[in-house]
Amino acid sequence: MPPQNHVVGPVVRLDGVRVKALAHPLRNRLVSALRRSGPATATSLARELGTNSGATSYHLRRLAELGLVGDTGEGHGRERLWAAARDYTQWDPADLGGDEDAETALNWLERDYLRHMDQRFEKWLDDAASWPMAWRSALGMKDDVCVLTADQTAEMDAELRAVVERWRRVGQGNPDARRIAVYRVTYPIDLDRPPRT
Questions:
Q1: Is residue 115 assigned to a domain?
Q2: CATH number of the domain that residue 77 is part of
Q3: Which domain holds residue 71?
Q4: SS3 category, 16
Q5: Is the whole model's pTM more than 0.85, yes or no?
Q6: Which among 21-25, 88-92, 121-125 has the top mean pLDDT?
Q7: Is the pLDDT of residue 158 over 50?
Q8: What angle do CA 79, 84, 86 make, to 5 degrees?
Q9: Please, which residues have CB within 8 angstroms of residue 82's CB and are 6 or more apart in sequence?
Q10: How far is CA 89 from CA 50, 68, 127, 184, 197, in A?
Q11: pLDDT over 80 (residue 6)
Q12: What is the domain count for the chain?
C-alpha cells in the first residue's frame, strides 16, 4: 500500500518510506534526470545513466508507486514516457519518527545530494569563463555566519524558502533566462559544543 500522500503543489515531502526508496543510487539519479531534462523513456534513461532498461523500468515503477514519478500516458507502444511527479523534494528528520533505517537512508541521501552538488558546481567552475560576465558576477558561491537558536534557524530557512518560491518561475518565457540551482545548506560551526537540547 502506498504511503500517505505528502504531495502539495510542486513539492513532494518525504516520509520514511519515500526516503528509504530514494536512498538508492539509480532511483535518486532517475528522479534527478527527469527533473533536469524532462520526460523520458526507460530506454533513454538507461542509456543516459549507463544501466539497463530492465532495471530502469523496475525502479521507475517503484518510484511511481510512491508518487515520485509518473507515466505521462504519451509513450509509444510498450515504451512508457516517464516524468518527475514534482519539481523538488523537501524533508524534515522529525517526520521520520525515530525510524533508524529511515534516518540512515536520509543520511545517505543528503550525502548523495552533496556529491551531486559538488560535481555540478565544479562543472560550472570549469565552464564559467565561457559565460558572459553578468552571469559570472550573479552566480557563484557565497557564505555567511549567523548566530541563531534552532527556532531562529528554522524561521530563517522558511524565509529563504519563501524568497526562492517567489523567484521560481519569474524568468519563464524569457529567452535570456536559464535554470539556476539554488542550494540552502546550514550546519553548525561549533561542532565541539553541542547544545543541551
A1: yes
A2: 1.10.10.10
A3: 1-139
A4: helix
A5: no
A6: 121-125
A7: yes
A8: 155
A9: 34, 39, 40, 41, 42, 45, 60, 64, 69, 70, 71, 72
A10: 24, 9, 27, 13, 28
A11: no
A12: 1
